[in-house]
Structure formats: C-alpha cells, structure tokens
C-alpha cells in the first residue's frame, strides 16, 4: 500500500465554512472552552457541544449514536482525563484507560460518519524524559518516558498513531497537535490534582487571604517548564484546522521557559503574597525539562502572542472573579 500521508500544508476550506457543524469535545474544560471562544470570535456559528453528563465519551455506543445523529463536519478533540503530576502518578489506570477509550471512540466514529477533518490534542509528555532540547517532533518514540506520566503519555502516543493509521489506510484528514503546559481561564484549581500553575495561584491566594507566613511548593524547584496561554493554543488549533493536513503531529509551544522556582516567584508576585516559600522534596520533580521545538508551526506561519506577565495577571483576575467571588 502506498503511504498517502497528505500534503504538509494546504489551504483547506475550514476557515470559509463558518456554518459547518463543528463538534468541540470537552468544551467546558480549559482548552475546549478557549477553542469555543476562538471559533465564535472568528464567526463560526454551528458548534455542537455536549457536557460529560450529556455524552460520556468512554461509551462506544453513545459516541456512535451521537455521530450518527449529529453528523458533524469537523471535530476538535479536547476531551480527556487530565491532571498534574500527582494525579497522573496516583491514578495511572484511569489516565491510560479513560484516554484510550475517549480517543478511540471519537476518532473511529468521526471517521465512520464522514467527518471531513479531526484535530486530536496530545501533550508534550509524549516525548522521552531525556529528549534533546528544544524537542523536535522527530524525538517521538526515541527513548523511555517520564515515569510519573507514562500511562497518559502512552494513551496520547496511541492517539497520534491512530490519526496517522487512519490517514494511511483511509486517506482521512486526521491531524494531531501537541501542546506544552497550558494555563488560563477555566483551568482546574484543585489543590492536589491540578497542574503547577493553577495549584500555586490558589495556594498563594489562600495564604494571602489567611495571612499565612509560608507556602509549600512541591519538589526541588529546579525543573524547567514551558508555559503557553490557552488562548494562544486555541488560536493555534484553529490555524491548524485551516492550514495543516500533514501526517506528523505538530508541537505547539511558547518558547517561554522558567524553572518551577521562577514560576513560584512570578505567581507569588502576581497574587501579592509576601511570605516565604518552603520546598517539599518528598514530592516528585517529574521530567527535568521539556521545551518544545516550535519551528515547524512557526514555519507554517503561526506564533504565540500572549506574554507570561499578561497571561498570569489575566488568569488571576479570572480566578478572583470566577472562583473566589462565586464561593462567597
Ligand atoms: N492543561 C494542560 O496543561 C494541557 C492539556 N493538554 C491537552 O488538552 C486537552 C484538554 O485538556 P484540558 O482542557 O486541560 O482538560 P480539562 O480537564 O480542563 O477538560 C477536559 C474536558 O474533557 C471532558 N471529559 C473528560 N472525560 C470525559 C468523558 N468521559 N466524556 C465526556 N467528556 C469528558 C471534561 O468534562 P468534565 O469536566 O465534565 O469531566 C472536560 O470538559 C487534553 O487532551 C489534554 O491532554 C495538553 C497539554 C497541556
Ligand atoms: C502538561 C503536563 O503536565 C504534567 O506534567 P508536569 O509538567 O510535570 O506537571 P505539573 O504541572 O503537575 O508539575 C510541574 C512541576 O511543578 C512542580 N510543582 C510544584 N508545586 C506544585 C503543585 O502544587 N502542584 C503541581 N501539580 N506541581 C507542582 C512539580 O513537582 C513538577 O516539578 C503531566 O503529568 C501531564 O499532565 C502533562 O502532559
């Protein structure tokens, strides 16, 4: 069989089909909600959305009936079991099984029911723990994974491979984007299960409100992480839907890399906490560094716009208005 991988870049019709039915899976999450805002800003009028309780994407029969009935033309898959280092490390069975089920059901039913194009979202944790930095797309499957999130990473790698397999066998336009660590409105601010940025924002906020002297931060503070505002990611997703039809997944990063210690100092300043930091070295550091090589996406014509300073202030304002004030 000839390997039909699709053109690396073509100007698809997506951007001109403003009334085409688009299923954004996971539309109430950090990423899905940002994608909905971006699509609406760009004039897309026919979004089909389902909450988790309306459609459980782990149910193959429910997903199948949904696609048979709704017949979306485009799909953006931003529904997944997601969490930070502690959640990934504590619930490995959930992270591998739920993600494999959601993505397998959605990708297969989307193909079967004639969806024109699908975007699958993975994560920078798909790359080997000691990948070359910045990490090019070609580093996939070249070495062992970071143990704290290998179960989630294996599911995400399977998602990329499923898109590639359907492209090869059926010439179907399924693409994959690999975002770096994200933050922004509608993030998960759970004290243990969230990612580092929302976890610290909440912890500093609560410490300030309670006049605490210190805040505990996990690990050694030395790991490096790259952060991208979710509105930039959403912009990149719409860009990829309109402009990319290649076989290989595409990294989506910011190039903005800080140590966890620097991040803690930045969040502390934005929140206005004046006490000290205490490091809990019983907690895992995870991968030492995972900076994406963004040159592929940049060469297609996309670059991020939101600075970390603006992104952090905007996210803290959102947190105050939408989490803190709603609790009062
Ligand atoms: N956050 C980050 O830093 C990063 C995220 N990503 C990727 O982006 C995508 C979205 O992540 P993010 O927005 O952060 O995650 P969130 O947890 O914020 O949102 C996930 C969404 O998926 C929905 N969902 C989960 N399970 C099911 C299910 N069984 N049936 C239906 N819906 C379900 C959730 O609904 P409900 O809340 O009702 O359960 C929620 O709306 C994921 O693929 C993730 O891997 C990639 C890199 C970094
Ligand atoms: C996006 C990516 O996110 C996950 O990987 P991660 O980047 O390691 O995730 P994280 O944000 O939880 O931690 C980043 C760093 O920060 C430190 N850290 C300090 N203090 C807190 C803290 O309070 N909470 C958390 N969560 N981490 C803390 C923590 O010890 C670590 O060194 C994947 O599992 C997977 O979900 C994935 O793909």
TrEMBL record:
CDD domains from the UniProt entry: GDP_FS_SDR_e
Q: What is the lineage of its organism?
A: Eukaryota, Viridiplantae, Streptophyta, Embryophyta, Tracheophyta
Task: Give the UniProt keywords, A-Z.
Answer: Isomerase, Multifunctional enzyme, NADP, Oxidoreductase
Q: Which residues form the signal peptide?
A: none
Q: Which GO terms describe its biological process?
A: 'de novo' GDP-L-fucose biosynthetic process
SUPFAM superfamilies, alphabetized: NAD(P)-binding Rossmann-fold domains
Record's superkingdom?
Answer: Eukaryota
> Which reactions are catalysed by this chain?
GDP-beta-L-fucose + NADP(+) = GDP-4-dehydro-alpha-D-rhamnose + NADPH + H(+)
User: What is the protein name given in its UniProt record?
Assistant: GDP-L-fucose synthase
Residue stretches making up the NAD-dependent epimerase/dehydratase domain: 22-253
**Can you tell me which family this protein belongs to?**
Belongs to the NAD(P)-dependent epimerase/dehydratase family. Fucose synthase subfamily.
Q: Annotated pathway, please?
A: Nucleotide-sugar biosynthesis; GDP-L-fucose biosynthesis via de novo pathway; GDP-L-fucose from GDP-alpha-D-mannose: step 2/2
What EC numbers are recorded for this enzyme? 1.1.1.271
Extract the GO molecular function terms from the UniProt entry.
GDP-L-fucose synthase activity; isomerase activity
Q: What class of enzyme is it?
A: oxidoreductase
Pfam families, per the entry: Epimerase
